[in-house]
Amino acid sequence: MKFVNRIQELDFLERKYKEPDAQLIIIYGRRRTGKTETVLQFSKPKPSIYFLSTRSNEKDNIDNFYDALFEYFQDETLLRLEKNWENIFQYLSGIKERLVLVIDEFPYLLESNKAVTSIFQRGWDLYLNKTDIMLILLGSSVSLMESEVLSAKSPLYGRRTGQWRITPLEFTHNREFYPNYTQQEQLYTYSCLGGVPAYLLQFDPSKDFWNNVHDKMLSKGEFLFEETDFLLKEELREPKVYSSILKAISQSKTKFSEIMTQTGISKSSLSAYLETLERLDLVVREIPVTETVRSKKGRYFLKDNFFKFWYRYAFPNLRHLESGNSKYVLSKIKSDFNRYMGHSFEGISIEFLTGNLQRVPFEFTDIGRWWHKEQEIDIVALNEDTGKILFCECKWSELKRKDADRILIDLKEKSTAVKWHKHKRSEYFGLIAKKIENKADLREHGYIAFDLQDMFR
User: Fold this and answer.
1) What's the whole-number average pLDDT of the chain?
2) Domain spans of the chain, in order of start
3) Does position 1 have pLDDT exceeding 70, yes or no?
4) In the prediction, which pLDDT does 152 show?
5) Which residues does residue 449 pair with via DSSP β-bridges, in sequence order?
6) Helices and strands (H and E) in the chain: how many
7) Is-above-0.90 flag for pTM?
8) CATH architecture for residues 356-455
9) Angle of CA points 381, 168, 370, to nearest 5°
10) Where are the strands (E) in 277-399, listed by range?
11) CA distance 155 to 157
12) pLDDT at 252
């Protein structure tokens, strides 16, 4: 399996490994993001035991855990012990080496015994916290890991020595999956699949983007064809309700009231559902970047690119896809895809600026979109302390110099409607596009100007 990036995550794990005391590390995040592979890359060269919990009963999991211990230690003492968690922890308390013990899919243990966090708390307090063991608990069920392992109500609260939420990769890592793709094709792929490694590995790098979309996303029976449905059922109790919310948002029903009307869900229930979707990183609530968090101007958008693509194009056409008419659906996608990329490119541009602070004139503390009534600005970045603000437009097109000048004139006019630090601010203006003619000249005139060449430099 191809392993890409995860430098920060590996550095974190190495740092904790080198600390002198016992470590209890929580690694979690949505499925397919590469949690297991990241931990295995870290633990491979070290004394380590890897145990994968299964959706079976507790006895089966304990039996399998004993097998993993015996395979590593080859100690016949284990064969004589009564098989329970207490004896496992007691046995491990006698280990004198720096051992990495990985328990994957920890939520499956919770499903078979709700008291397992209390059992592990006792095991940690009585036996493990004075050893050299580095215990890593992994979980794909974000909701369970947050509520049962990380929350203040969890018996394990206060015991963990570190935690890391594994998130999807950034767009610049696509080139490592598809080295022969053009920059444009790499952004197409990121806008379609996001940065989830398991999804990126589904596409065949020897085929072009559109053939991959047809063969791997729109063809019944393929892994990606059932993925959104699988994830919702795996993570949530009412997948159909959540799906109706995602569908509404994908149809541009972005205000709370619009989603409520479209889905027929009550106000109180909808708030809870949206909070859950936000926690899972499927939906994001955005407010104009100059507003406070309590602003009533909030809008909801699909955050995950894979879900965004699926609910915009595949979900409304499932009857055609189920009947094998995938080429018809593909033609519909192609006719609309530039519009879709226009929205996606805004998010990619924000990601680019956030990761390249040294290439903008000041370090910003906030970045996002801005809107008021009928006016919108694609990106506004600001620094509350210095009073500096950047206004930027994103265009998924190749711009002639005259087009760039016109856009910048319009941008300056729109910026006057932004009231933030109105008379005490330093203003900067910029443009990000697929390609910009005479980009260097714009920069000489004090403008920020980036295109794909800069993004993939």
Assistant:
1) 96
2) 7-165, 172-344, 356-455
3) no
4) 94
5) 431
6) 22, 12
7) yes
8) 3-Layer(aba) Sandwich (3.40)
9) 20
10) 283-286, 299-302, 366-372, 375-383, 388-399
11) 5
12) 95
